[in-house]
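Appendix B: complex inputs.
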Amino acid sequence: MTRYIIKRLLIMIPTLLIVACVIFLVVNSMPGDPALTVIGPEFEGDYEMVRERMGLNGTIWERLWKWLSGVLRGDLGNSYFLGDTVWGAIKQRLPVTLSLATTALIFAVTIGVPLGIIASLKPNSALDTTISGVSLLGMCTPEFFGGLIFMLLLSIKWKVFPSGGYRPISEGFGEWAKYIILPAFTYGMSQAAYFARLIRSNMLEVMNQDFITTAVAKGQRSFVVVMKHALRNALLPVVTGIGMVYTIMLGGAFITESLFRLPGTGLLIINSIAKRDFPVVCGILLLISAAILIINLAVDILYAFIDPRVRFGKK
Amino acid sequence: MKKLLVVFIVVAMLLGMVACQPSGGTDPVTTQPADTAEGTKATAEPGTTEEPDINVEFSDKTFHAAMTATPTALDEGYSTNAYCRQTSAHMFETLFTFDEASAVIPQLADSFTVSDDGLVYNVTLRQGITFHDGSAFDADDAIASIERYKTNSTYSGALDTVIVEKVGDYEIKFTLEEPLALTSLLAFPQRVIMIPKEIAESHMGVELDEKALIGTGPYMLKEWTRDVRIILERFDDYVLDERYEGPTGFGGKRIAYYKTIQMDSVTEAEARIAGLETGEFDFADAIPTTAYDRIVANADLALNVIKPGKSIVVEFNHAEGFTMDINFRKALALAIDPTEVMLAVTSGRSEFYRLDPSLYQPEQYFFTEAGSEGIYNAKDLDKVKELLAAANYNGEEIVYLYNKDYASHYAAGVSLIQQWQEAGINIVPKLNDWTTQLSIAQSLTGWAINQSSYSARFDPNQVRNMIRSGTLGAYGFADDKVDQYLDEIGRGGTNEERLAVWEKLQERIWETLPFLKFGDEFSLNAMRADVKGYVPSYIDRFWMVHE
Amino acid sequence: MKQVNENSIWFRIFHTPSLVVGSILLIIIVSALMLQPVLTQYDANRNDFAAVLQPPSKEHWFGTDSFGRDLFTRVLEGGKVSLRIGAEVVVYTTIIGTLIALLGGYYEKLDVIIMRVMDVMMAFPTLLIAMVLAAVFGNSISGVVMALTIVYVPRTVRILRSAILTIREEVYVEAAHAIGVRPWKIMSLHILPGAMPVLIVQETFLFAYAILAEAGISFVGVGVQPPFASWGNILSDATTLMSVAPWNVFAPGLAIVITVLALNLIGDGLRELLDPKRQKGKARS
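Resulting structure:
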């Protein structure tokens, strides 16, 4: 077990290095010159000096080397426009994205899992068909369309929630919740649909297995059976699914953040792409990619713990 | 320092603010100091005013402003951003600065003399000025600050060859290789801020960090949390510049009425307006035009239309294609009705634009309509035909670059494309994001017309990088006369002398069309109706506000 | 009456309701897009400042936007772009993905390298990197297609590869090996056809993802740029008009939902039809 984890960690290092190089090269090949944005249409300042100060002089390889050696020392560089280090800028906005993704995940699980269980209790009943239909519709509705509808009803028409913005939790839980609920609900919905469908099909699969049939034959009431046996087995993939969904959510949060103008890392990366703030774009991509690698590893290890059938090192 | 101070304020500029509450008037715009070009010109002499004064005393209160962002830097050599400039202007002072009409006035300089050949400036400094850290300001600090600016600023080019020497404790001498508009260069566009000698010397080539942001201005930095808020506190040992009767522009007698100025970063317009309505904020920056009616209808609030505004322009590619031909450029100009362009920019609301052929707007000292007759706002499709024929134009593709990042650029584009096409010019619109557009424009190939806009300029020196032959902003434009006038203006002289040259230059701009201006677009901000003394500007100054 | 052959492919298709419903929906959408010149007399990019922000009416079925453009026309025009992007992404990922997967299946040494590369590519956050790539390729339609293709190729490769690995163990393939059929021939004649059902199902879902992804990155302003309409950028324009002209939101939004729904139904139906054992929900990404 320990050897497996160490081996996986060792593989992660070269992977991350390659990922970092790819990110830097891709991001820096965007068309457009950030130095021109800095001096603006009125050309205030000396172009060459601005370029030099932004570290845009030199070949792409020299700059890659400089950036990479910084990254290895834990320094993601400085933003061209924010007057802050990349890490500082991300650190400040990370709580917003984490708030959004975590709350959305809570919504997704607390709504999706029970729906999936209910649907699986009586397969092909009217209730099941309705839930399946709704969750399919939920999966097909992009969060920015669902969000716009919620916004239209809950913010503009009924004025229950603000239509955008963010308050940190330090200003009080109530304030924070008022601003985060709508975006998180919006974002959680499509993933709730995913969980509902996942749970339902897992439940059906498990319930058709011998041990459940045996339990029912032994005269146990079906509700107890569901709770005791089926659910426990059906939840296994959900536990690991949560990890995967969380990484997807971290990477996809930018659309919801853009819609609700939540000042998180997603909005930061959109704005940074628009301004060609290369260090910030690289920094966010690198951190999220690293998070994905780590969460994937954690999921694999967790899965191995839960499901003893999985053999390490063998596919 | 006295607790009570009687202070005079330039009321010509603030009349609109005080009177801004709607009094049942049908046209709220008339309550603005709109189009007071003549009146402003009259009071444009440095530090003069004939208007009645208002008595103000110091207060312990906090002025709370909702801005769209916090500054990303407070060291002006490192940012040309308006938030940097406006916050920094509260904290730092310069030897010379601009008054309300963008004319140069002395600030930390007491007086100056220029030699007859214009090559030697002797500047005496005001005495008894202290920095926020308590140390006294003298010639050593001034020289160190200027030397640091020469190394640090991306805009210091013109000052590179200037030699600064100490003559006395409060007197310095500038020796120039060739005549320069030295006082203007020390004032703007990147202000040569005065900081203590030790800090200047330890920050050569290094941005001032929070602890090093020590100036002589009426406010000191108390807290700066990026993207959240910035708090300034009154500097109690600030020495008022009694040469002036009140604050003007970036200088004058700057009275810090409020003990604290807090500027929050409130990105959503709705939240800024809501906070203003509840009284949480005294001031809200960047009000969308759609909120105009809502604010005007509220007697507790006052709306400011910021003038001078943004010049909406297009630039031409002077390095390739038909736009190299002045006949073709003139045809492009005469094909356009600027009113339609500006109406598109402001979604049809005439309060938010002004037809204006001058790069320096009516509120500004260098305003002039010279040369615009018959070419600006003179749509004439027959003449366009003649000019196109003279340019040998036969329907070839003319690429027009615009973007959606700036709503005004996009809207202007929608109108321009239609008008040019109707005039028989085969416009091919190319929409890019702004950064890409700038790069394509710089490449000087594959385009003819480039949509842009200029924020209000202060001094004719600032036009240099935009039209002087060989500069990035000229896009291949080269005209001997333009260069000659620019050099003349760059050589300095009195405000009157420079204005005379500028008029010739503006006239020449209309003759040669390095770029084409359509008009001024105004933006809005709002404040509580009881706020007095505020003068709208795209660089906000809160040291002048009071109750 | 004729005897109904329960094993005939048509019988099975018509007894897969999701496939039938999905196909009908898709046919309606595609024909509406094709018939756009007949259905509307407006130009999708023509500004008409006399008809700004009009609610739905007889003249403008879905209303007009802030430039007075007919929304029905724009949604149809945008649909062509969105569907074209989805279809192109599907075609390119299928071709490239199949080639890579076959190469990996053919040369086992290459397989190791390919899978390492795919692992690296899968480490990136899908939508985010697609947005960055779209910006790199210049915010055009072909740019978005390239970006999404790059992002989705590893998925196709992975799924195809695992199918190929399973089939490779089958008796008939082993037999072909034994009688000396050349490996490349085995690949194309025996293994690939066996993997086809999996590929078809996967690419149907991918069509839906690609449409959602395009809409998402165009929505945040990085994907397809005006004057080209796409469902994503029409919705993006609509966000600023929410309080004054909410009808701007519904038409493009519903168009996305219905199309993606149709494709998902078809995908589910195909899976049922082609591979009845595998019936699991899929994660959106």
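The longest helix of chain C spans residues 183-219.
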